[in-house]
Amino acid sequence: MMMTSFGADAVWLLVRSVRWTLLLTGIALVMGGLLGAVMALLRLSTNRWLRQGAAGYIGLIQSIPVLMILFQSYYGLPLAGFDLPPLLAAGVSLSIYASAYFAEIWRGAVEAVPHQQWEASASLALTRAHQYRYVILPQALRQALPPTVGFLVQLVKNTSIVSVVGLAELARTAQLVNNATIQPFKVFGLVALIYFLICFPLSRLSRVLERRLHAGRAR
Amino acid sequence: MPFQFQFGAVLNRWPFILEGVGLTIGLSLGAILLGTLLALLLTAARQLGPRPVRWLVEAYVEVLRNTPLLVQLFFIFFGLSELKPFGVSLRLSATPAALLAMTLNLAAYCVEIIRAGVDSIHKSQYEAGLSLALSRWQVLRHVVIVPSVAKVWPALSSQFVLIMLASSITSFISTQELSGVTAIIEQDTYRSYESYIVATVLYAVLALLLKGLLAGIGRAAFPRVSGLARIQARGEAA
């Protein structure tokens, strides 16, 4: 990277690196979402062991820093025989991190559905799968959407942590550009602005959805 | 050859690891105390101040909540050192920069959380307090501040635990807290995986202890309301 002043090509480099930030967010959203959904269902299971196992997983992941999850995947997965490129190791770590929070958000949303809904659908002889599919989940989804979008903001911001394994996403590229230009005030100011432009609309959307959810209720 | 775990080389450095744990605890408790104080001041400024002050507090909260802590840390550590207003250098060394970034970040989240508590206090309660001949400060303290903090204590506690976990990020500017010393031990011993397993376990223990401590503080500081708050928290989670 040959540049000495903080000019248009530096800005362009930073803007282009956003695609890795978004890709990581996307991977963690899909994989973390799937794992989180499984964990939420286990957490709500009628089997005590499954319930406690899921609770243990969620509690553990929520008690360790994302950075530690990252190092565990980065050094641990190769030892276990999975030789993953940095992008996947980072994606796996963020997915594991996200799964614990998604699981808690979605468990809360399902539990917010009044218990009578379970009883009424059970009295119609629906199986548990059908209860979820036709009665519970459609109602839980409305509850779940605002906090899920809100958590996406945390996810976007935490992709910056994986810069430590050398993946040239936005935060890592910022460090590289700063090393080349030595204008940290401008570089990190601009990078903060770019993150803000991604995160602020999501925060707003989450708040709008939240307000719409409670629009029917008298306050 | 299968991988052999060798914790000996890592655990031999326990005094150094303990130093790291100490700094993690120091940074976290410092940020929690200063951040909560700043949040209360900002909340007061927003509730009572003129409109431009309110806008400034809103802007502060939105900017800090919608940018990564890591970038805030870099901005404070590297960015401010570039500035020299009136010839005075704003350069901070790593540990104060880390404490400043964590405090400012936590305060923004706490303002949002405390706002929910303050909003839950109806105007009539404030008026009732005044009608009982309490002074403005007494009303503020007994009717507004303490009950609203008590109501949102569970949410505040989670946020405190999150900032403790996030203190690991400050190792990016080479503060020697738990993650920082782990990185050094990793380089010295070449036992990367073992080093990070030890650090991970210590973080989990710290999180557990902090949760216990915060729950205890909640029970001791808000004895009358904490039972109610616990029931409400359970109701919200349910």
Q: At the fourth CATH level, what is the homologous superfamily of chain B?
A: MetI-like
CATH class of chain B: Mainly Alpha
Count of individual domains of chain A? 1
Number of strands of chain B: 0
What's the number of domains of chain B?
1
Ranges of chain A where pLDDT stays below 50 over 5 or more residues in a row are none
The level of helicity of chain B is over 70%
Name the chain pair with the biggest interface and residue counts per chain. Answer: A-B, 40 and 40 residues
The CATH topology annotation of chain A reads as: MetI-like fold
How big a fraction of the residues of chain A is strand? under 5%
Q: Taking all residues together, what is the mean pLDDT of chain B?
A: 89
Q: SSE order of chain B in H/E notation?
A: HHHHHHHHHH
CATH H-level superfamily of chain A: MetI-like
Q: Please give the radius of gyration of chain B in angstroms.
A: 21 Å
Please report the number of helical segments of chain A: 8
Work out the helicity level of chain A. over 70%
The end-to-end distance of chain B, rounded to whole angstroms, is 50 Å
How many DSSP E strands of chain A?
Answer: 0
Question: Structural class of the helix and strand makeup of chain A?
Answer: mainly alpha
Commentary on this structure:
The complex is a heterodimer of chains A (219) and B (238). By secondary structure, chain A is mostly helical. Chain A has one domain (8-213): MetI-like fold (Orthogonal Bundle). Helices cover 79% and strands 0% of the residues of chain A. Chain A is built from eight helices and no strands. Chain A is flat, with a radius of gyration of 21 Å. The termini of chain A are far apart. The mean pLDDT of chain A is 91. By secondary structure, chain B is an all-alpha fold. Chain B has a single domain (14-237), classed as MetI-like (MetI-like fold), CATH 1.10.3720. Helix content of chain B is 80%, strand content 0%. Chain B has helices at 8-11, 14-48, 51-65, 69-82, 94-119, 123-131, 136-166, 178-189, 192-221, 223-237. The N and C termini of chain B lie far apart (50 Å). The relative contact order of chain B is 0.14. The mean pLDDT of chain B is 89.
